[in-house]
Amino acid sequence: MSLVPAEFYWRILPELVLAGFGAVLMLIEGGGRAGNRGRLGAYVALLGSLLAFGAVFIQAANPGDAFQHMFRVDGFTVFFDFVIIGATVVVVLLSMDYLPTQHLERGEFYALLLFGTVGMTFMVGSVELIMIFISLEISSISTYVLAGYRRHAPRSTESSLKYFLLGSFATAFFLYGIALVYGATGTTQLYDVARASLTPIVGGGEADRVLLLAGALMFIGLGFKVSAAPFQVWTPDVYEGAPAPVTGFMSAGPKAAAFAIFLRIFYVALHSSGHAWFWMVYVAAILSMCLGNIAALLQTNIKRMLAYSSIAHAGYVLVAFAALGPEGISAVMFYLAAYVAMNIGAFAVVSHFAHREERYVDVKDYAGLGFRFPVPAFCLSLFLFSLIGVPLTGGFFGKLYVFRAALDAHLVGLTVIAVLNSALAAFYYLRVVVFLYMRQPAEEIAAPPMTGAFSLVMIACVAVVIWLGVFPNRVLEFASRSAAQMLR
Amino acid sequence: MHPALFFIFGGIALAGAINLLVQRAPIYSALSLVAVMGALAVLFLLLGAEFIAFIQIIVYAGAIMVLFVFVIMLLNADVPEPTRRSKVAQAIGYPVMALLLVELAGFFAAAFGATPVRTGGYLVQVAAVGQALFHEFLLPFEVTSVLFLVGVTGAVLLAARREERHGAAPRATRVHAGVPTRAMAEALSVPPNAMGGAVIEPAPQPESEPAHARAQGDGR
Question: What is the interface pTM, i.e. ipTM, of the complex?
Fold first, then answer.
């Protein structure tokens, strides 16, 4: 008798591929000759992430549960797997551009990227809280280490330490929430929790209260991971100190994965207490948007500015989250897909211009770059326009669907605040564009070499941003179908 | 009986946890953690989870705490000053230790030559743990290995000594006296006489490092 049927392995194929290539990377790093190991590692990581991206198609062809209902392959899983692994492919390419200029290229960097992706992809497919917790930890610990990767830069170490300490604290809250869910319902499987919460084992009202407390604790843990206010304080320091490609990675993959489990836990397992946790989401959405945008207005360091902007974007996503329905889910999914593409793109340009030891990360350094480096500057402007939500970019439809979901749920006040915030946000994004094209540089920064890897990153991000901005329908349809599937 | 025991050992666990936080010397914190682990094991025992209770003692109080203590002793050689209370601990500790040794000796003497006893229920419980671990929770069990791998890789990446130093000056330049040594001056890549024997600042941060230091680093 075989305990593990073959289709279980097909369902976790992307994760297996990524973990396998991560292990191979470690072997190369141990045995290879110094000097070209890092480069070889980069190619292996690129191959691994591309194969994993392909493996998602095989995974998608084998829908269903795996491993005693711990892992579920449905449209939702497949959607986020594409987004997350796609982001990893782009970040690997970006690191191939960035790490050699910093003289920091090592195989372990790529191994940690792949392992982190294993965690995130397991996270989005897991329908069981212990599994979610372990994969959340895998993704978090890899990001803590990657944030401190520039060991000789005090800011990088500071970033890593802050992220680690606060992150561990947040994880403890999440874990406590899991324990309470188990206490109230006797199970950790999300769909069983949903069923059990209707017929609780603890006496009626008490179980409801315990579940609500569990929801609040898990909200703190996940709110930290998606950097939603009031759990956002770590974001600017960590984003500023981490190496630029890692910052791009952090703001994309782990954030998308955390939102994915946020949706699964709250929409599925804690569905019965939705009326109560709705207000948590509501308040967090308003706080994140306002705090993020107002603080971003005051920044001159472009990485810090993008950090605050990422807090604001978490707020927009929470607006859709508060809509409580399949429309909200599909809006969140679409928004995250667009956000990942435009944000990684923006950080790619930042990391391209950063130079050795990340010397040029101030808005003033971008003065006049528009005419000296037309292609990266044009791409950066496009990503910033997309972050504003200008039509013909993915960001526009992302915002549109978010606002529509909120309006359909009669959240007029919340939508008005969100629209006002998007208008406010335009100021600081446009300021960068103004510097790019309309200011004279004080110091001419040297031309960074246009590598093939960087060109590919630009092509990929621009293509996705434009594609989502011009033909959003197929992606949105897929998202709506997955949302309906997930709630079933 | 149970509620009283629960409050006693819960109180010990809580007191140990608070002591862990307020102690300044890491070794005291580690020892309070042992007390917390021990008290938790008793709580598990009260809940009827014997297997978990013993695993708690063997794995946490035994293996992991020993590792903690070793690491603290290796990394941080500061010997904490004995306080007045530690004399009290001595006065109580030695008699208790003697008592335990006598009890242990008595136990071995009694066990010598006794017929072995069949264990009944435990085996079933162990089987149940095995079933849960390797069947129901197989996937999390396996995925945990990735988690450990990430932890080890991260520790090596962040903490291990590295042969190549890419241009950055070493940061751990400790200044014991006010007079700079040649090695320090080299590390700072400034001629010794330029400092004039003044108190040395910490090694320059790479981000504000002078250009010539960077150039020299590249040449290595």
Answer: 0.89
CA distances from B169 to A89, A203, B185, B190 (A): 33, 64, 11, 12
Kindly state the helix (H) or strand (E) to which residue A464 belongs, with its residue range. helix A452-470
Q: Tell me the two tokens of residue A321.
A: 């989250």
Q: Inter-chain contact B154–A142, Cβ cutoff 8 Å?
A: yes
| Nearest Cα to Cα of residue A259 among A394, A417, A120, A138 | A120
How far apart CA A363 and CA A349 sit, in angstroms, is 13
Domain coordinates of chain B in residue numbers?
2-123
**What's the token pair of residue A353?**
């211009």
| Tens digit of each residue's pLDDT (9 = 90 or more) over A218-237 | 999 999 999 998 999 999 99
Determine which of A127, A134, A142 to mutate to test the interface with B (most B C-beta atoms within 10 Å): A134
Find where tokens 């819960």 sit: B10
- Total number of domains constituting chain A: 1
CA gap A225, A314 in Å, rounded: 10
Q: Are strands A71-73 and A64-66 parallel, antiparallel or unpaired?
A: antiparallel
pTM of the model: 0.82
Top-level class of domain B2-123: mainly alpha
Q: Taking CB atoms and an 8 Å cutoff, what residues of chain B touch A22? A: 146, 149
Which residues on B lie below 8 Å from A160 (Cβ)? 158
The shortest C-alpha distance from A273 to chain B (Å) reads: 28
CB A305 within 8 A of CB A361: no
Burial track A84-112 (b if 16+ CB lie within 10 A, e otherwise): bbbbbbbbbbbbbbbbbbbebbbbbbbbb
Q: Domain for residue A1, yes or no? A: no
B99-119 in b/e burial notation, b at 16+ Cβ within 10 A?
eeeeeeeeeeeeeeeeeeeee
Classify residue A232: in a domain, yes or no: yes
Task: Write out chain A residues lying below 8 Å of B144, CB-based.
Answer: 134
- Read off the pLDDT of residues A43-90 as tens digits, 9 standing for 90 and up: 999 999 999 999 999 999 999 998 888 999 999 999 999 999 999 999
CB A436 within 8 Å of CB A384: no
